């Protein structure tokens, strides 16, 4: 294998199986959850909220599905392509997760600007990953974290459109993602990838709860 196709540490069979199970569980719950969310939004929400539900649901399922495919695929040129998609999908998931919350206050110019900035940054990150695969990985991790926590800049105005439980779930999910990054970069630890994806699935579940409360409790504001 050429040095060009460097995927980090080679995981053994058991690590790949456990990682596949973790990602597989995440995909199943994401499919069920996204379907329920979109159905709920279609029946009860506005057109803007329906669009936000679709964006979030598709982003969640897409990210977990690509991650599952990439991580079980044997080292090859195809895996190198999947690597670009996997890392790009993280940008999509972050932006898609923000969309339902920011959409609620999109009438506020500052919140709308943040929504546009989040998606613009995601597109820049995707371009970076596709144009320079295997390079600037540490920069990409910092960009993931910066995007994830950039919402604190508009937490004040956004919180006016959300219930306190939604805000707390957003923050808890962000903390879980951030703690998981420790294992994402701890490549020498056995089952490191499965542990990292366990944090991803857990954080995604918490953020799914935040999105659901964003929709289901919107009428009580």
TrEMBL record:
<feature type="transmembrane region" description="Helical">
    <location>
        <begin position="53"/>
        <end position="73"/>
    </location>
</feature>
<feature type="transmembrane region" description="Helical">
    <location>
        <begin position="198"/>
        <end position="218"/>
    </location>
</feature>
<keyword id="KW-0812">Transmembrane</keyword>
<keyword id="KW-0862">Zinc</keyword>
<protein>
    <submittedName>
        <fullName>Hemolysin III</fullName>
    </submittedName>
</protein>
<keyword id="KW-1133">Transmembrane helix</keyword>
<dbReference type="InterPro" id="IPR004254">
    <property type="entry name" value="AdipoR/HlyIII-related"/>
</dbReference>
<dbReference type="GO" id="GO:0046872">
    <property type="term" value="F:metal ion binding"/>
</dbReference>
<feature type="transmembrane region" description="Helical">
    <location>
        <begin position="85"/>
        <end position="103"/>
    </location>
</feature>
<feature type="binding site">
    <location>
        <position position="197"/>
    </location>
    <ligand>
        <name>Zn(2+)</name>
    </ligand>
</feature>
<keyword id="KW-0479">Metal-binding</keyword>
<feature type="transmembrane region" description="Helical">
    <location>
        <begin position="165"/>
        <end position="186"/>
    </location>
</feature>
<feature type="transmembrane region" description="Helical">
    <location>
        <begin position="21"/>
        <end position="41"/>
    </location>
</feature>
<feature type="transmembrane region" description="Helical">
    <location>
        <begin position="109"/>
        <end position="132"/>
    </location>
</feature>
<keyword id="KW-0472">Membrane</keyword>
<dbReference type="GO" id="GO:0016020">
    <property type="term" value="C:membrane"/>
</dbReference>
<dbReference type="Pfam" id="PF03006">
    <property type="entry name" value="HlyIII"/>
</dbReference>
<feature type="transmembrane region" description="Helical">
    <location>
        <begin position="139"/>
        <end position="159"/>
    </location>
</feature>
């Amino acid at each position: 294998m050429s040095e060009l196709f460097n995927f980090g540490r080679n995981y053994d069979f058991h690590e790949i199986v456990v990682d596949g199970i973790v990602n597989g569980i995440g995909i199943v719950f994401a499919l069920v959850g996204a379907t329920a969310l979109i159905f709920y939004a279609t029946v009860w929400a506005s057109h803007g909220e329906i669009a936000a539900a679709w964006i979030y649901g598709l982003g969640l399922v897409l990210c977990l599905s690509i991650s599952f495919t990439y991580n079980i695929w044997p080292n090859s040129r195809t895996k190198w392509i999947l690597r670009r998609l996997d890392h790009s999908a993280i940008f999509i998931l972050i932006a898609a997760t923000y969309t339902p919350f920011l959409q609620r206050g999109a009438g506020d110019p500052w919140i709308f600007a943040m929504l546009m900035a989040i998606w613009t940054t995601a597109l820049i990150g995707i371009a970076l990953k596709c144009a320079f695969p295997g390079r600037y990985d540490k920069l990409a991790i910092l960009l993931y974290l910066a995007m994830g926590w950039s919402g604190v800049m508009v937490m004040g105005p956004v919180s006016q459109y959300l219930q306190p439980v939604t805000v707390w779930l957003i923050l808890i999910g962000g903390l879980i993602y951030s703690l998981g990054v420790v294992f994402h970069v701890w490549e020498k630890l056995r089952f490191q990838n499965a542990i990292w994806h366990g944090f991803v699935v857990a954080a995604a579940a918490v953020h799914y709860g935040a999105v659901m409360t964003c929709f289901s409790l919107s009428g009580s504001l």
